[in-house]
Design goal:
With 145 residues, the protein is an alpha/beta fold. Helix content is 28%, strand content 21%. It has 4 helices and 6 strands; from the N terminus they run E-E-H-E-H-E-H-E-E-H.
Length: 145
């Protein structure tokens, strides 16, 4: 996927959307650096919890910039009220979608571990697929370009 156009996601339910919004698409993020994380709440005690805390921290840092956005997509293993509870428990303040029952988005992004954080550039191209512990450094570097 690196260097390729980011695949569109297919979410059936949304949480934390702005007033008046019912869904989000990749086109909504054109011209923005998008930090996309695919996750599942069954791992909220392990690496997913650490990543969600890191994302909350970074979202707080960049929330006033109009060229950086955060979005996460939960797997399709839970019903909406369970995902809503997980979103509130993890204190996520940015938009969260729920993948379709067929895990279409997870498949489109070739997710084989969670959490998977992907950086999509302002032109909609996948720039980073594995961010490990360098997420903040990668965001800063991409904003300097």
């Amino acid at each position: 996927l690196l260097g390729e156009p980011a695949p569109e996601w297919t979410c059936q339910d949304w949480f934390n959307l702005a007033e008046g919004k019912e869904s989000l698409s990749l086109a909504d993020y054109k011209g923005k650096l998008l930090i996309l994380t695919l996750w599942a709440s069954f791992d909220l005690n392990g690496s997913t919890q650490q990543r969600m805390q890191e994302l909350n921290y970074l979202h707080e840092i960049y929330k006033d910039r109009d060229d950086v956005a955060f979005l996460s997509i939960h797997d399709a293993g839970l019903v909406p009220n369970e995902i809503d509870f997980a979103v509130r428990t993890a204190n996520i303040r940015y938009p969260v979608g729920c993948d379709t029952k067929e895990f279409e988005t997870f498949s489109a992004y070739n997710v084989n571990q969670i959490p998977q954080t992907i950086i999509i550039d302002k032109q909609g191209l996948v720039k980073y697929y594995e961010v490990d512990i360098r997420l903040h450094a990668l965001i800063k570097a991409m904003l300097r370009k």
